[in-house]
Amino acid sequence: MGSDANDAVSEQLSLVREVASPRGRSRRPSTSTRSKVPSSVPQAAEVDPVARVLVEVGLPHLDRPFEYFVPASMADLAVPGARVKVRFAGQDVDGYVLARAAKAEHEGTLAPLRKVVSPEAVLTPEVLALSYLIASRYAGTLADVVRLAVPSRHAKAEKNLPMEASPAQKGAATSPRPAAPEPGPWGNYPAGTSFLRHLAAGDAPAASWLALPGQASDVDWPVALAVAAATCLAGGRGALLVVPDHRDVDRVDAALQGLLGAGQHVCLTADQGPQARYTAWLKVLRGHVRCVVGTRAAMFAPVHDLGLVAWWDDGDDVLVEQRAPYPHVREVLRARARLEGAAVLTGGFTRTTSVQRWVETGEVRSVCADEPTRRLAAPRVVVAGEGTDLERDGAAAHAHLPSAAWRAAKSALEHGPVLIQVPRRGYLPSLACQTCRAPARCARCHGPLALNSADSAPTCRWCGTAAAAFECASCGGRTVRSTVVGSRRTAEELGRAFPGVSVHTSSAGDVLRSVSGEPSLVIATQGAEPIAENGYAATLLLDAWASMARPTLDASEEALRRWLAAAALTRGASQGGVTVLCGAPMHTTLPLVEALVRWDPSWFAARELAERVELCLPPAVRMAQLVGGRVAVQRAVEMAALAESVEQLGPLPWTSAGSKADTVQMTAKESMPKIQLLLRVSLDEGPALTAALTRMKALRSARKEREPVGVRVDPMDGLG
DNA sequence: TCAATCCGTATC
DNA sequence: ATACGGATTGAC
User: Which one, of A621, A623, A615, lies nearest residue A676 by Cα?
Assistant: First the structure.
């Protein structure tokens, strides 16, 4: 494991023990005498009459435990982890019992718990410890993180689910452990079987796995995840698998069903409905099952004896939680693995720079296939030029297809379906070097340059510096070109280019799961590609330039991720599969294109990370973002009393993601333009920065600052 | 001298 | 947030 966060971890653990230990004594001898209990209220419990309670008031400066006395009637119900209602500042609020104690630290009179909502210990010590770490990592409140970790109660589900595992499940739990499965897909990777062996033995191996493309059961990634989970279960420990979306959950679910049989795992997804969802979650909490597959909210599932955390496609932005404090699945599962001694498995067709950093610090080991294996499994990749060889006439001209792409599709349609991937609409306009097409970067802070309005000079989206004299860092070019994005071919146009072929479409909101092996054209936006039975005969990746020119930090990483995800649905070169990249700049050999052609995401990730290190960009540094009115942000920064070493980039006008670039956001009431300030520190100084931001938030809420100031750590996760 | 009001602080 | 206390202000 890397050393940068070890201190923070041990510090947090001791904090957790102090607060959560059932009989925990304070390090300092308590100066309080035994707390007085008003005579008008019920008798206190005889054993551990004090409950430390996390109260759910949404105020940062009240984000700490408060002590209540436990009435005798609740002595056995108010267990650590139980939901309670308490009187707080004159009103009834919800809370959780964090711990019971013999004596209070609070010197004044304790108020009684008003009610134990349910004796179900929904906030387990492990999840509580995890929540402390995540709150600290993201400068958020414990209450916010607990809200993410513990689903809201569904009383009927709680009542209907038996407390004890059913006889069959009980039998499974007490009978000899299930046998470890065959390695299956893991046999394709030199380090794969070793990973499984350590996993089964109860160790905590950590791996970044670069999956081979293909859907056959001896390579298919959902099968590989299921095998890892089953191996962990066979070793007597629980497993937690997180995947980006519901379709992925279904695929892993099917694979688990095949390996484990019925009733050994549960799925957790947002679209289950409250009762089904809470029932599934309770099965995990009560230990009926020890294996979970789900979407991002499952990352907090209270799996018993956790032995493996795994997640798929680290770069997918749906792995970022959309509620404060916006934690990434990667950080949550990494923290869980450390706390609970579990193995780590992060897989994908590509590797993000964040995971590459772990590989390079030795925190995780790379698990990937050797080059000959990759070459056979991956499709042959062809690069068609940007406009240079467009068909001038005939059907293909209508579809704006390069002739190489048209020919590949035409011949592939004799053997099976053809996938045509188009970029999503709505990318922000951005700037690139006119000569070499490298993204234009700010000379001062290396942020992305963009045009605020048609006639102004290019401006940095981070620090606001106007690039009066642009000079490209890669080739020295002095002119920028605007990359207008978002043109999308219609299914009709393509249909006309291939008369007589049936056409399917799949895009966000109307996603097609799979298509048959019959010849057809499948037009899908990025991320919505259906799976084809036996794989696509060919895949066309359209408008490469649009994917490459997005004005976000991770544009290249993201482009490769999306291309390889589509290309991975294509038959391997050994079966004639081909992928055609259309619309890539031909002037230079871009590493991005080279990585696709050679199917070498590991090499690309290392290059990208080296560049980030050089330019002091995440994940080589820690960043935080403040958003709000100009004065409020300025005052917030002063309150934070930041160290000298904290670099401030900006402020500059803030536009919300997805809004048009020239729309300046206003705060609701004052019609004040919002501004953004970025803070940058070394990774070592990350914990100090988040601590300062936490203090600042507490101070602001204690002083009842009116104007909101948004704080976001790792703002590049998800938004770029 | 007392009540109304403002401000700061604690909330167990 | 809401409640409370202490200080401050203003009218009798």
Answer: A623
The sign one gets for the Cα dihedral A591, A593, A598, A600 is: positive
Q: Given a cut of 70, is residue A321 above it in pLDDT? A: yes
Helix (H), strand (E) at residue A74: none
3-class DSSP assignment, residue A356: helix
A62 touches strand B (CB under 7 A): yes
Question: Which of residues 680 to 719 on A have a Cβ less than 7 angstroms from any strand B atom?
Answer: 702-704
Type of residue numbered A600: D
Residue nearest to nucleotide B7 (CA to C1'): A703
Identify the residue whose Cα has the smallest distance to the C1' of B8: A703
pLDDT of residue A18: 39
Distance A254 CA to B1 C1' (A): 82
- Which of A155-169, A174-188, A340-354, A441-455 is least confident? A441-455
Residue A88: nearest nucleotide (C-alpha to C1')? B11
Q: Is the CB of A63 under 7 A from strand B?
A: no
Gap from A114 CA to B5 C1', in Å?
34
**Interatomic separation, CA of residue A705 and C1' of nucleotide C11, rounded (Å):** 34
Strand B positions within 7 A of protein Cβ atoms: 9-12
The number of CA neighbours under 13 Å toward the Cβ of A522 is 30
In percent, the amount of chain A with pLDDT more than 70 equals 82
Reply yes or no on whether the pLDDT at A344 is more than 90.
yes
> What phi and psi values does residue A667 have, to the nearest 5 degrees?
-75, 150
CA of A244 to C1' of C6 (A): 56
Contact A67, A53 (CB under 8 A): yes
- A508 phi/psi in degrees, rounded to 5: -50, 135
CA of A90 to C1' of B3 (A): 25
End-to-end CA distance of chain A: 27
The mean predicted confidence, pLDDT, of chain A is: 85
Nearest alpha carbon to residue A429 among A487, A482, A488, A472: A482
pTM for the full model?
Answer: 0.86
Lowest mean pLDDT among A28-32, A308-312, A636-640: A28-32
The one-character DSSP state at A483 is E
What integer pLDDT is reported at residue A8 of this predicted model?
Answer: 43
At residue A186, what are phi and psi to the nearest 5 degrees?
-70, -15
Closest CA to A345 of A361, A360, A362, A330: A330
Local structure of residue A448 (DSSP, 8 states) = B
CA distance A304 to A335: 16
What phi and psi values does residue A490 have, to the nearest 5 degrees? Answer: -90, 155
For residues A320, A326, A328 and A333, what is the CA-based torsion angle, rounded to 10 degrees? -130
Q: How far apart are CA A180 and CA A202, in angstroms?
A: 13
Q: Could you read off the pLDDT of A190-207 as tens digits, one per residue?
A: 999 999 999 999 999 999
The nucleotide whose C1' lies nearest the CA of A91 is C2
CA of A337 to C1' of C9 (A): 61
CB under 8 Å to A140, separation ≥6 — which residues? Answer: A134, A324, A325, A327, A694
Mean of pLDDT values over A211-227: 95
**Closest to A696 (Cα-Cα) out of A686, A710, A683:** A710
**A45 CA to B8 C1', in Å?**
37
The answer to whether the Cα torsion of A469, A473, A475, A480 is positive or negative is negative
Distance from residue A89's CA to nucleotide C5's C1', rounded to whole Å: 15
Measuring from the CA of residue A704 to each C1', which nucleotide is nearest? C1
Nucleotide nearest to A706 (CA to C1'): C1
- What is each CA distance from A541 to A273, A513, A522, A538, A561, in whole angstroms? 36, 19, 12, 10, 12
Tell me the percentage of chain A whose pLDDT exceeds 90: 62
